[in-house]
């Protein structure tokens, strides 16, 4: 589905950082060690090594950084 518009939008959060909202493809996320909130929110899974992992959406200092990262992965944000 690379290159298709999936409802991916770039948003400026109250923190001043930029990131993605809407239909965010998994390939734009990082895999990180799960926090307690990930486990309690049922967003974590157990890896082959027995550790718990979760997806984390990246944040950027600029809108251009967010757009460039998405485009480098083959996605075109709608805004």
What structural keywords apply?
3-stranded antiparallel β-sheet, single chain, 2 helices, 79 residues, two-stranded antiparallel sheet, alpha+beta
Tell me what you see in this structure.
It is a single chain. The chain is an alpha+beta fold. 19% of the residues lie in helices and 27% in strands. It is built from two helices and five strands. The strands form two sheets. The chain has a three-stranded antiparallel beta sheet with strand order 3-5-4, with no helix packed on it. Strands 1-2 form a two-stranded antiparallel ribbon. β4 (45-46) and β5 form a beta hairpin. The radius of gyration is 14 Å and the shape is elongated.
In short:
The protein is of the alpha+beta class and 79 residues long.
Please summarize the sheet with the most strands: 3 strands, antiparallel
Please state the CA-atom Rg, rounded to the nearest Å: 14 Å
Give helix % range: 10-25%
Roughly how many Å apart are the termini? 19 Å
General shape: elongated
Tally of individual helices = 2
Strand neighbour order, sheet with most strands? 3-5-4
User: Low-confidence spans: pLDDT under 50, at least 5 residues?
Assistant: none
The sequence of SSEs as H and E is EEEHEEH
Which percent band covers the strand fraction?
A: 25-35%
Structural class comes to alpha+beta
Number of strands: 5
Mean pLDDT over all positions: 92
* Count of separate structural domains: 1
How is the secondary structure organized here?
Elements: E1 8-12, E2 18-22, E3 30-33, H1 36-40, E4 45-46, E5 52-56, H2 63-72
Antiparallel strand pairs: 1-2, 3-5, 4-5
